[in-house]
Specification:
By secondary structure, the chain is of the alpha/beta class. Strand 6, helix 7 and strand 7 form a beta-alpha-beta unit. It is globular. It binds zinc ion (ZN).
Length: 243
Amino acid sequence: MAYHDTHFHLDLIQSPEKVAEEIENNRIYTIAVTNSPSVFFYTEKIASNKKYIRAALGLHPELAAERHKEVDMFLKLISKTKYIGEIGLDNSNKAPSDYQLQKKVFSQIINACADEGDKILTIHSRKASKDVIDIVGAKFPGKIILHWFSDNLKELERAIDFGYYFSINYNMIHSSNGRRIIDRIPIDRLLIETDGPFTKINGQLSTPISASLITEELVKYKNFRSEEFEKENLHENFIRLLK
Ligand SMILES: [Zn+2]
């Protein structure tokens, strides 16, 4: 059985080199997101000789205002990788001017990715999913993964209609809001993420090694509703995402 983790932060995890080795040994396909272009080089270096780790170029929305000058670097690096993230919008506890700047940065990134055509994007949308979906739109030429979606069901339905994928983590399976969201997502759009080290499982900061546990829990949860959902279905979604 193969597992995947489409959203974790290798550079922020304790002992990245050791975790990278564990990922290889356990054969977990991973997308290692970064929070700014200056960090991308670090993660890319670790990933360069690894089979199971893909480095993603990112500019986290909560850093977008402070580091918007890195947008130029981002745009220069964009052709170096198929994987983009963490990018997006965050409208929780943000000054309106900060949020406006986030939108400007995010739109620039989305336009540049659309020009390139075949990117796989992992996107943050906390309290901002309407704007994220408005900016990405229905005809984006790459693949969109909404990571840790937590907004309302109306926007969720729109994202489903637009063909987006959704990466599900441990916290989502264990919260009522998360479960309400998981209930609505078609099984062929579900992916697994750990968002390590930003989630904890049994008191431990998570790493991609937890992908198997999350997969098992998600399958068990979804099977209350549907009989024919298997672990393999989740990995097939991941394979389809890459094509
Ligand atoms: Zn993240």
